[in-house]
Amino acid sequence: MRRAASPKTGAYAGLAAIGLLAALVLGRPELVALAVPFVLALAAGFALAESPDPQIVLRVERERAIEGDELNVEIELRSASSLEQLEVLLALPAGLSLASGENPTVLRLPEGEPAIVELRLRCDRWGGYLLGEIELRGRDRLGLHVYQARADRRVPLKVYPRAEALRSAVRPLETQLYSGNQVARVRGEGIEFAEIRPFAPGDVVRRVNWRANARRGSLWVNVHHPERDAEVILFLDSFSEVRRADGGAGTLDLSVRAAASLASAYVGARDRVGVVGFGGILRWLEPGTGLAQLYRIVDALIDTEISLSYAWKGIEVIPARMLPPQALVLAISPLLDERAVSALLDLRGRRFDVAVVEVSPLSFAVPGPGELGDLAHRLWRLRREALRARYQRQGVAVVEWRDGMPLAAALEEVTAFRRHARLTRV
Amino acid sequence: MTAAYPALAAERLAWLVGATGAAAVALLTVAVVFRSRVLLPWALVGLGAQYALWLELRGGRIDERAPVVAAGILLAAELGYWSLERTARGRAAGELAARRLLVILGLLCGALLVCAGILAAGTVAVRGSAAVEAVGVAAAVGVLALVWRLARPEARP
User: Chain-centre distance of CA B146, in angstroms?
Assistant: First the structure.
């Protein structure tokens, strides 16, 4: 630890010097007596000064947590020489907060014995954190020396977004070749009944619909819809976000939570899911399925951040393999940046199956002061409504999802729109 | 108490002694309230100056209560610097406060004893002798050297 004289040391030395000089000038032994306690304190302080070098071990209960979880953190300190008072501060990154315990906390570090600081942290926001910057500040018995040190014991901590349990997600219009849980529009081997047709050579007997036979007097067989998998691309708009002035949750937080919920639902339904982070920095994760893919997606999501960029980006920058034909592109966007808005329209123009969950920025943006501010806010809202209507004219389902509203309700609106809009599909 | 004693015991210019003490106490209060590390030593200097003024007005007799006054100023200094520190939080805060009080108590007892010894030596020694002057000068120079050493940045390992 770095040792330094405290301000008290300088003051005591100065007081002692002034007292002794005054005693000399005035010839009064009483003034020597006034100065002597300070000299005594200084002498004792220097004699008792030590050079502690605490060993620090940081233990975090686990490396992964979910938003809202609490976890225990333990800081163990041990030193060969004692330290009368030691203040320990664990630097908490924004997104983690103290649930219980004292931070900074003060303790006495006895010689050779461990001192343990126990903290309980709350994971307020998803993200990847490095936890373990520890600041130490100590003082000796008389407070004449201060000790300072900064220890880097950083360990990674991943906080995953809390996913909402979805009973069903938006069904893609088209399915892929592999078996899955989505009922395909085509006819084939499956469970879901589609229609009946006349018997043809090669049909298996167990497909014969005996009731239809009895009515029509000839052989009729059941035809089914096969269950297939689907490809879903979660299109996460990270060009811009709206955040409350107090630093609370913003549209990006909601977007990431929605993406995590959707990824979990689609992977659970054995669909292939990929992610495109469309923003200042383009990120993507190729479609895949299974639990490992879900972990990959969530790991990719927690790295999402807003990167300021003025460069124009269209969908041509997205690798072609990230946009497989017949995939459902489910966009999660606050629809604030023209680049993301245009890219989605462009995708629709290229006959992709697009649906948009609009993470509403309205609850984060308050009208400006005065009549003009109110008017500007109303105009902005009207423009947003016009934009939604533009999407809907193109056959793209857009649903406004506000903070506090269940995602399932928003997805139900998307499904309802697509059910009625299917006939008008180009 | 340290400021009140000279003010109450003054026989001449009591108002001046009292005013000096009052100014020192006011400065101490301001330093503690506003957590000023700069003002606190000057408040202590003020207390010492008040005592020195009273001694000068009083005349040649040695004040036997000087160790108590010295201990009082030291106590004011210790408590003043303690109040300037951030409030300690944690399970060990109470224990640390108790230990610190014990350290201050020990320091005060040591100061009382040493001051009494010095005062006794001062009464025995012939006032104004060259030996006493030399010791005083050496002590003052030593303390100044200590101040200079502490003031140097490289002196802080």
Answer: 18
